[in-house]
Structures
1.
Amino acid sequence: MSKPPYEKQEKIEFASAKDLPPTPISLGIATVNRTGSWRYMMPLFEDKTPPCNNQCPASVDIEGMMRLVGEGKFEEAYLLLRKENPFSAICGAICPHPCEKVCNRGRFDRALAIRAIERMVAEFGLERDIPIEKGKEREGKVAIVGGGPIGLSAGYFLTLLGYKVDLFEQEEELGGALRAIGLKKLPQKLLEKEVAFIEEVGVNIITGRKLGESISLEDLRNDYQAILLALGYPPEKPIKPKKDSSLETDIPGVFALALKEGDIASAVAEGKRGAIVVDCFISKKEFKPEQLKIGENGPLSFRKYCGEKIKRSDHIASFSELNLAYFEKNEGKAPDERRGYSPTEAKEEASRCFHCGVCNMCGNCYTVCPDAAIQPLPDGRGYRLHYGYCKGCLLCVNECPRAAMSFKEVER
Amino acid sequence: MKKVIVGNHAVSYGAMLSRVEVIAAYPITPQTQIVEELSEMCASGKLAAKFLKVESEHSAMASCIGASATGARAFTATSSHGLALMHELLHWAAGARLPIVMANVNRAMAPGWSIWVDQNDSLSQRDTGWLQFYCESNQEVLDTIIQAYKISEKVLLPSMVILDAFFLSHTSEPVDIPDQKEVDRFLPPYRPKYKLDVNDPHAFGGLCAPDIYMEFRYKMEKAMEEAIVVAEEVDNEFKRQFGRGYGLVEEYRTDDAELIIVTSSTVSATTRVVVDDLRSKGEKVGMVKIRMFRPFPKEKVLSALKKAEKVAVIDRNISYGHGGIFAEEIKSTIYGTEIEKKPTIFGYVTGLGGRDITPELITEIAKKTLKAQKPESDIIWMGVKL
Amino acid sequence: MRIPEVELVTSGHLACPGCGGALAMRYVLKALGEKTIIALPACCWSIIAAPFPYSSVRVPLIHIAFETAASTASGIRAALDVKGEKDVNVLAWAGDGGTFDIGFQALSGAAERNEDIIYICYDNEAYMNTGIQRSSATPYRAWTTTTPYEFPKEEQKKNIVEIMAAHRIPYTATATVAYPEDLIRKIKKAKEIKGTKFIHILAPCPPGWKIPSEISIKMARLAVHSKVFPIYEVENGLNYTINIEPQGIPVEEYLKPQKRFAHLTSKDYQEIQKRVDQEWEILLRKVGTKAKA
């Protein structure tokens, strides 16, 4: 077994010439010399936010999905998607994929076909009925009025938080605005599947109930801790929230959601926001949206709200910060227009992901350090930078293919 | 086994019997027969050594250093400019405390090209930390090489065994070539404590700051002092086993001498004859041959020379700007000590570039010295056409 | 990138931050392993190796005089042979000074004798250890303290690889720190060959090339892709293989970031580009001819 490059070495001293060997012969190693004292700059491992993650309105961890799909871990990828998005399959069909437009690979050869991969993963999960874990059961019932994508999303997230959710939809069928989209783009079966999924997670859906007719706000306020109005677009009787961010209406305990943008991912985001606001209301917590954002001006993340530690700086890893020398041109295969990607194809496509700003343990930093100051941790869980010896040359930062390192000036 | 061989071949036999393991050498007149003979010995299998036919003397010494540092018994031979070319590495071999033995055929330095005998080449290297032995006969050359390995491997300093160009190198003399088994008994295989070893890695010769360098040099000097004792022990041991010993300094008819002639190398052989001749004519003359020049055996020189009133030193060399080198060293030894009667030292410089030092010349030196009260100058040139 | 995990260079060595030479040794020892003896003449690594009583490599190493890398290595190999120690690598590790200039005789001698050593020249293109003086490896028009801006170097860089190939030694190759996998592959290949192996590694030097430390590897990369430093190998001095296809970027892109070339004019760039293209053509022709060893 080889010895580590930074094995401890005590200073060696000689009291007299008698103690010396006849000629200068080394008796210890150079690690006695803590060259970390030389540096003016200090490199650090710092994951940043990939542009795709930052751009997704539903704050899906796209980079994470790519990593898992690239490893063939489709089930894990599915569960990752579901942490932020109950409508992954539908997004995979009709989302306008703003993520793909900012994909850094697009400026290199061809952007990742993120949407098609998302679709493959979502359908994989739906086909196998992969169960979703819910949070611990909580005290409280929440009523949601409106079975469109916003309402259904809100219901999904509140259920994940452990609430008992009753969702009232005026029509016999669910989907709201989604039903207006052409069947060519959004097959009926897909819509049904995903709605069924939400029901299976635990949202109790009651159809044919219209607010103001078969149900009244008064009744709801008696039976439920909070009411979330997701009345779709355009609203018949607009009940506006007092202030945009809090979603609270004039009536205490009644929250109103409204969508300005028209796409499915934004709808999910709005529903998610509603669920978080309601939970804050019921558990008397302060709603702090700044702490839940992904990236610079990103949308709220449900994972963050649930306490998941996402150790990434808000800085978006831009194209100019990547080191393209470590990537080979590979346009890969665009998804088939009708059937999208097979799992194998999705895996191949996902392997083209740059993982902008996120360390994927490629080991470049370890490879390029002239001082062997970056070494792999024994259990393979990453790399360690030994600041006792790092001279601050910043080769690691510069040669990181994906800008997953940063540096700062040392105070002297 | 007695054989009539030239001095160069005596060197070869000395190296062969010492079972040297790596030889790296470059030819130069008048050393060439040494390496030619060694080449044949290696080719025929008589000697199981690696022979590196290097492309210069500098590389020869570097290869010896590499080989010796890796734990092999290393040998080389050279002369004159070849030795001068090695100069940088002579310092290195001594500082690295490597027991390399080298035969140097004393030959004059150019320009004007000269292939004949002169001691300036080896004496110019006297500060490098190498032991130096000046040999009078081919037998002595062979024996001294074997002794040199034993001494060097004990004190960890390299040795130079020196023989005169042509007068020894190319002159045939009867030499008793000892039995290999006997030599093996005298000189065991080389097993150094410190060497380049992948099983015990160390760096050798790294940078030494002023706060530690001097200690290493102190140790080198201590090793030199030890060498005086060890060299005598080894010579005595050799005498016991092989019946031949030479001492560090040899005294010849010095006991009641009024004048002692100090010599080295083949001049000693000629001077013996002159001493006998002068003695037969009633002159109280003796001879001291200095065999080991480095370390300089001060005590032995002092005890031998203080017997006489006058000392005539014959130097086949000169340190420009000072004088004959043996004379200088003897003067500093004698005058630097506290003895009652210090002999007057006459320094004669002669025989440079191979000019013959004849019995007549030596007799002239003796007579001149006996007649003079004190030396006419620090350097008394003999035989120069003025 | 996958490189061997063993570390035989320790941290705490005295190389400048970003030193290409330190990185080169790290890679080479990873490839050669523990059973390696290094002959180290005067060069930057004499200091990087740390002062007495420490060493920054975990293999036996001997410091030796400037011009003696190849001759000392020959002696070490002879001793190992005599002792019957077969699978120990003898590595002569010299800078461009100790290879192209003062050490050249010993190198040529050892190569002519086909000594069983691996000779690696880590080339930072000047006598860096003594404070950036020119060597015959310094490129045309580069600044050094002995080729100042008023009188930059007029001579072309000596083509050491061609000289060594002309010795018809079993293996000659170029490599650089920007391509560690290629470098390691070549060292491992050299390890298995008997005879003299010569590897010329371009090792950028931040203080000497006047570049910030973090781009030293990038410079090596640009040197390759501008064809200034082609990556190729020569077997038996006759059969040439180019290992990395250069992207063919203009030399200006490689030279501009280095302040040692700050004084170059566009005329200089054209001249250098012409020369680089010419040398590349010559190399391509050699690749085309396959000869029997």
2.
Amino acid sequence: MFLDAWRYAASHPQAFWTALGVHVLLSAAALAIAAGIAIPGALAAHRRPAWSAWVTNGANIGRTLPSLAVLALVMPLLGTGFAPSLFALTLLALPPIVQNTLAGLRSVDPDVVDAARGMGMAQREILRRVEMPIALPAVFAGLRTAAVQVVSGAVLAAFIGGGGLGDFITAGIAMMALPQLLVGAIPVTLLALGVDYAFGAAQRRLTPAGLRTP
Amino acid sequence: MSWVARNWDQIALALMQHVGISLAALAIAFVIALPIGVWAARNARVEAAAIAIAGFLYTIPTLAFLALLIPLVGLGPANAIIAMVAFSLVVLIRNIATGIRQVPAEVVDSARGMGMAARQILWRVELPLALPLIVAGLRIAAVTVISVSVVAAYVNAGGLGTLIFNGIATDHPPKIWSGALAACALAIAVDASLSALERRMRRERSL
């Protein structure tokens, strides 16, 4: 069976590489856009306690929404294809990044910030040289969760015409063609595991030496 | 809106199927996770291994997992329930183990001093004190299971996902809306009620 899957992929190289490319592009773009919104957003919310509560509650609710429901809700509004899928996946990636960035910033000891201020650091400098390095592992934890979720969600994008490896899975299930199904399911599983591992390794490396636990 | 009014029975049936399959999966996952979690609380090696394996399962994309099960168990609710159980294990095991390990050693010691056997200590001291964290794990697992079961409609497991897939296939937005919004509402409601329960337990135990 695995051999059949291998043969199927080898005999349809064009289709396979296109689907993989779309999958990676869709996931990476959604993650990048979400990070570009969520990290500055969380920084801004951290400075304003009134916003912080709203943003936290919003992220908590966003975190509970089923991925497929979000993709399905976007479809009647924006139609099918790559762009609606990208929009939905970006929405799905926001909550974990916001949650973890805020948690990271909150974990900074106020005494440390006071000490930095006492040393004459400006607000910007405190953020860049004290708060961000301490919060960075948490930010990466959020990116890791979001990345795995986006790779997984991008499989479901096949249902709204987003392309990607999910196409092989849906076609494989529809025609009960196991090799085709595996050509979608195995690479996407490896992709998710690889992304999880890579972000985990980055998270450990980016932890400041003083905060590292052996 | 008129579609919803005319077909509320269809929506209610899908919702009930959804709740039913989710509860079944959650119950099975809990029965599996409890002994593993208790064991993991006593043994760091077991914990590392259990979390690594369950974490690996959790990372597999939902639809890929359901698809990979087809050659083994075919289409239908069994396939969905296996996937849902697999996705819930990591958070349940971790929270059960952490919850038990958090119980102060003095409390366990005094229970032993009162003549309680290990089994009694587990059921009457450790697990009750770990309950807020166990409920927190159940909350996350419940939300995960509800989300997986939307996708599981694609492998004929029924539930609210059926409305979404039928709606997409027939290009009928009211069906998509009602399925997707009902699934979101269910997830939010379950999350909110279990987190309220968790807060109340924490207050009662003043942890």
3.
Amino acid sequence: MSFLVPHLGELAWGVAFTFGLVALGWIGATILGTVLAIMRVSPVPTVRVVAAAYILVFRNTPIAVQMVLFAFGLPILGIEFSLFTSAVIVLVMYHAAFVCETLRSGVNAVAVGEIEASRSLGFGPFGTIRHIVLPQAFATVVQPMGNVLILLVKNTSVAAIVGVAELTFTADKIAIEEVKAFVVFGGAAIAYVVICVVLKRLVAVLDRKVAFSK
Amino acid sequence: MSEGTLFEPPGPRGRRRNRAFEIVTWTVLAGIALVAMRKADQGGLFDAAAWQPFAQPGVWRQLGLGLLNNLRAAIVAMALSMVFGCFLGWGLLSKRAVVRKACRAFTDVFNGIPVLLLLFFISLELPAWGLDLPDFWFLVIALTLYSTAVVGDLVRAGVSAVPRGEGEAAAALGFSELQTMWLILLPQALRLMSPALVSQMVIVLKGTTLAFVLGGYFDLLRAATVLGTFYSRSSLQALAIAAIVFMLINIALSQVAAAIDRKEKERYGVEPVALGE
């Protein structure tokens, strides 16, 4: 294992970048996904269509293609971000579509009577969504949302193809330099699996916490 | 209430408000489109010269070959993972705790590792073990490992969703455990799983684009970037075409999945097994 010592700094940065991508990607995707979900059930037809079109486009284009297009294609048009920023933006845009679809299934699970009651109490459409529907929808989809989060964790590795030095990229670099693919990739794989398992546990705990509000 | 709005039809005031929203949305959309068009025009996206290469059939043949390579890898990986997935699913339902735990560990591990990491690992490690396969097989192996974990869990869910009586009846008729699984449970489970399997096909197809990192596998994304190096003015156009082609294929596949899902509910009145993503 001594061959790892000169690379410890790099590895730490790789893990830090992965966590950064996950954190920023998740915050962005949750916000954008919630906005899209609200748009998706809006009483205004055009707003619904816009959200539906967004989901169709971003869900069905492979994230690797989006990443390459964004990081290498858009600079031709003079739209240029740092590689890390591009990776975060692509992760947010891709996963927002999944968050939206997940949240919408939660919205559909809210009883119609709740909405009718809230309307008759004088809540407008937005107030109903904001105060009545969304809190219940979020509580029902904790588990599926956890799956989207794990999808996001795994997809942060795609940032490696445009050269963001996150965990997968760093592991590949060290493995090639030291010709020790098995140990290095094994370690990186364990790191990913541990992150996923820990997140799954946390999601299960959260799911139990909110169980009563369903 | 899967489509449409949550709310009752609007009254006069609601209609006015909705119309105002409608106008605002169109204005914003038009504004975004205008800015995007101007940016694209300045960047030369619509220049005739940049589109020139696409007049040659050879360029399209290259892109088509790339796409064919994506589809080939996706289909082989999907077929393999369905075969292995059935065994894994069977293992996940095994009465022996050791088998069950081992299979569970396999699904957890390969569900948790990014496919890209698997791909890097396989492309570096297998040649070191003396298995110098073409890049196609590196891609297929990585995707199969991941997809097997997903399909295995699907098979488990599918078989569990088949009514208990089916298995009991088979046992009462003297079917062996293997026969029960192969003749009675799996066919019904596969029918329940079919929408989810098509969705998984979309995920695998999206995954084939990761072959971009191998460098030696000529997939559509690679074809588009190679095109961009030959005709440097057309690289954005080539990438955009690749993105649109993938999008259309995946939308078509998703429609198929949704159609099967609907059919299933209509014909058998059962909820098909869903993909956990």
4.
Amino acid sequence: MSLLIGAMTIGFILSLLALGVFISFRIFSFPDITADGSSTLGAALAAALIVKGVNPLLATAAGFAGGFMAGAVTATLATKFKINGLLSGILVMTALYSVNLHIMGRSNVPLLGQQTLATYAERAGTKILGGRAGLNVGGWEVSSLDASVLVLTFVAIALAGVVLFAFFQTNLGTAMRATGDNSQMIRALGVNDGNMIILGLAVSNGLIALAGAFLAQYQGFADVQMGIGMVVWGLASVIIGEALVGTNQLGLTICGAVMGSVLFRLLVAIALRLGLNPNDLKLITAVFVFAALILPNLLRKLRSQGASLSHA
Amino acid sequence: MLEMRKVTKVFNPSTPNEVRALEGVDCTLEEGAFVVIIGTNGSGKSTLLNAVAGTFYVDAGTISLDGIDVTRWPEYRRAGVMGRVFQNPFSGTSPNLTIAENLVLAARRGLPRRLAWALNRKVKDELRERVRQLNMGLEDRLDNAIGSLSGGQRQALTLLMATWLKPRLLLLDEHTAALDPRSADQVITLTDTIVTRDRLTTLMVTHSMHQAANLGDRLIMMHRGKIIQEFKGAEKRRTRADDLLARFEEVRRAEQLDETAAEMLERTYV
């Protein structure tokens, strides 16, 4: 049971990553792989500041701000200097590796015994539950610490999702969605599309860094390698989410990205439990995303071929 | 109002594909003028429109609007005072956004976009009222994605969007060329209604001699990056589609003659 709760908590945390990837890949059609670096940046900033004794809320906010700036740099390279989008992301991601090492001072910063958002959540949970060590949820014995972390994570992510949804309904947010949809049109309506992309990727990487900051506090350490493969994980979550909700309505796709992230983590947990070698995880995720990208087209082709054969 | 002075543009300079698209074009539009541009393929008529819109920067010459030099203004900045409709009916609208969202984007052309809600009931009622005037039944489909509409409907909406806030200058780039004849007629009628009602200063490129003869109060003929003839006032009103065709035929002949004559001279004297 605690395995399940752990998987769900990580799923909710990484749904921020999924939302960030959703913004760059789906709203702007920008293949932004800065995420591998910015998620670590968020974790590194939060961990380094917490160890220095900074309030964990402030440290987490600093993580968001760091990702925000990283995204802005990637988008500036792409829009103002006309560098290929993929290459811009690679440049920033590579540079961030050194930046992250400098921030942390070494390759791994443990947070054991530190005040983090996770310990805050545990304390709040203990207060509300009156100090009981276990909870009975539908016949399952659940550690109250795990449960309170899960609930607070859920609340934080729900809040982020609602804010994001609301943002995309404003004048600014609508202009951003239109930029990804038809940049020629939005320029003709007097919008500087380059600035829209910069702001959009900044928000996207801010969310991704926030996921990194949460993850570091949840797992109790930040590691310079922790960001490897984040883009593909995020993309997998977005794709699962799209399959779950089956529409491109904005509110539902945001819910879908969160659900996709949780489902993906549950699947991973189950696969590991069934004896999957953890070393194969990234390979299998990559193969999954590959399949999800080509299957729709392949199925359509097969179907139209079948149709033409039956007509013949 | 709009002043173009010696506007020059060369595409792919010093390569085998060099195209002298505009060769020192001078043109002035008075306030409220409705100018139609016609020309052969590759004559530079669309290039001229794009130069005004700021799709690219010109190589030489100046473009000014209301006495302000806009030659170095980027496209989005000029769009604050210019409305535009493209040849491709899919270029002017955002397919995954709803009709209402597209319109409300146009309702803030050139204004800052901040964190106020894009749509509320009052705004939507206003949108519905103006969409009703199109007589296309779209007022009941404001929440549908605009990508689900036909090319003609989308072009009518693009025209409505381009003129939502009265632009200082309206640019129409062969905006009916990709439509079926019935939709093209509808859009042209709508264009005439809006331009006349709001007395918009308009620059319209067209491939249709019929439209050129019937619309606007001034006609510009372009050929090989230059303005070769203008019809104004009474002369413009008298001009018929056949006259324009005849004039183009004349140009073509003169050119052939020039080339053969040049060849003959070359053979004789060089």
